[in-house]
Amino acid sequence: MPLARVLVGHTGPIYGTAVSPDGATLASASDDGTVRLWSLAGDVSSIGDPLVSSSNYMASVSFSPDGRYLAAGGGDGGVWIWDMSDRASPRPVLDHRVLGSGAVHNVRYGPDGRTLAVPYDDGSVVLLDTSAPATGRFPDTRIHGHEGGVRTVSFRTDGSVLATASDDRTVRLWDVSEPSAPSPLGEPLTGFGDVAHSVGFNADGTLLAASSDDGVLWLFDTTDPRAPSCSAHRYGHTPAECGACPSCRTAPHLQVRRGTAPRSCGRWTRKPSGSTSSRPH
After folding, report:
1. What architecture is the 9-144 domain classified under in CATH?
2. Residues 46-74 pLDDT 10s
3. Calpha distance 225→67 (Å, rounded)
4. Fewer CB within 10 Å: N-end or C-end of the chain?
């Protein structure tokens, strides 16, 4: 079996991909203004025509946890959702709804599939109620708090907490246990040297990883999301220098170093003893 296969179809850079929960379908979002589907079962191949052909770029795609629906966000602020029951002929249930100003970045379904988080360049995140997509009704609730575009969002596994990363160089945590009434959890996490670009929780929600355009990876202990603490940051950073969280001066610290070579990446292991190790690849 080949180590890689080339999928040809897009005519511009590809900004987002998502694999369906059953592993049978790949969705891709491209600068060429299209979202495409690819079959991963047997011979890898494209499925039908593009789902959308926008005059602006398509930024991201996300499958619902049950694989029934696919959401996409675009550079013109539009959001799309398709019923994927028949993947050879997806049916739109939400067609190009603009919910904020500027581009949509990384749309993400919550773990129960009843909420879709839509981050915007205007610093807001829209929580779209996707509990009854067949009705065509998608009530929305807006989160305000960032002073720059929101790049990425991530739900904790239980769906009660949402993390947001922004151009304003902060990461924020939100209580979304009731999506129609979200509220901030604690103060913004700061200390980033550039745009806070991406966030992601670990499987049990006790650790949040955040990356920045300054090339530094941060790890926050989110066992208590109301009072997160910095559990790891860049090599050479001392507790007294860290401005990310109030408890940082006293909390145990793990040091995470940058990759040793330009454009390198590493696999990081958090050890019970409170240290980290990496394997570059």
Report:
1. 7 Propeller (2.130)
2. 999 999 988 899 999 999 999 999 999 99
3. 29
4. N
Sequence-distant (≥ 6) Cβ neighbours of residue 226 within 8 angstroms: 185, 186
List, in order, residues 6 or more apart from 8 with CB less than 8 Å away: none
Separation in Å, CA 21 to CA 40, 69, 70, 98, 190: 12, 11, 11, 27, 34
* Pair of tokens at residue 120: 């915007």
Q: What 3-state DSSP class applies to 147?
A: coil
Compute the Cα dihedral for 190, 62, 201, 65 and give only its sign: positive
What count of Cα atoms within 13 Å lies in the side-chain half-sphere of residue 39?
Answer: 12
Which of these ranges, 2-16, 65-79, 187-201, has the smallest mean pLDDT?
2-16
Q: Is the pLDDT of residue 94 over 90?
A: yes
Q: Which two tokens stand for residue 52?
A: 């959308």
Tokens of residue 181, six digits:
């009434």
Is the pTM for the entire model greater than 0.70? yes
Residue spans of the domains in the chain: they are 9-144, 170-281
Residue 251 has pLDDT above 70, yes or no: no
Q: What is the CA radius of gyration of the chain?
A: 19
Answer whether 79's CB lies under 8 Å from 56's CB: no
d(CA 122, CA 129): 20
Q: What percent of the chain has pLDDT over 70?
A: 81
Q: How far is CA 274 from CA 209, 231, 253, 257, 269, in A?
A: 16, 9, 7, 15, 10
User: Which residue do the tokens 């539009």 mark?
Assistant: 78
| Residue 231: other Cβ atoms inside 10 A | 24
Nearest to 176 by CA among 117, 107, 133: 117
- Dihedrals phi, psi of 124, to nearest 5 degrees: -105, 160
